[in-house]
Design a protein that fits this description.
The protein is of the alpha+beta class and about 80 residues long. The protein has one domain: Winged helix-like DNA-binding domain superfamily/Winged helix DNA-binding domain (Arc Repressor Mutant, subunit A). The protein has four helices and three strands; from the N terminus they run αβααββα. A three-stranded antiparallel sheet has the order 1-3-2. A hairpin with a 2-residue loop joins strand 2 and strand 3. Helix 1 packs across helix 3. The longest helix has 22 residues.
């Protein structure tokens, strides 16, 4: 099945957001409080979108989230270096 131009554009935008969020999390090795990251992006996305993107990163094993502290994983660091 082929993606339409609009679907491709949305997929690229989603991937750019995921990468930017992972880069922000990776900048603080001891972990970034989720609320701080959401405060930085709340003007461009709602909470449901934010939680969905964090869920993708977590489910793919790119970050961990424990007590709302986001930490990049080795897999996440490798993904950032490759992209």
């Amino acid at each position: 099945m082929s993606l339409t131009t609009a679907e491709e554009t949305l997929a690229r935008a989603r991937d750019a957001l995921l990468k930017a969020m992972a880069e922000s999390i990776a900048e603080i090795p001891q972990g970034l409080p989720s609320g701080m990251l959401y405060a930085a992006v709340m003007t461009v996305m709602n909470l449901d979108t934010y939680q969905g993107l964090i869920g993708i990163l977590r489910d793919e094993g790119l970050i961990t989230s424990d007590n709302h502290l986001l930490v990049i994983t080795d897999k996440g660091r490798n993904w950032l270096q490759q992209s």
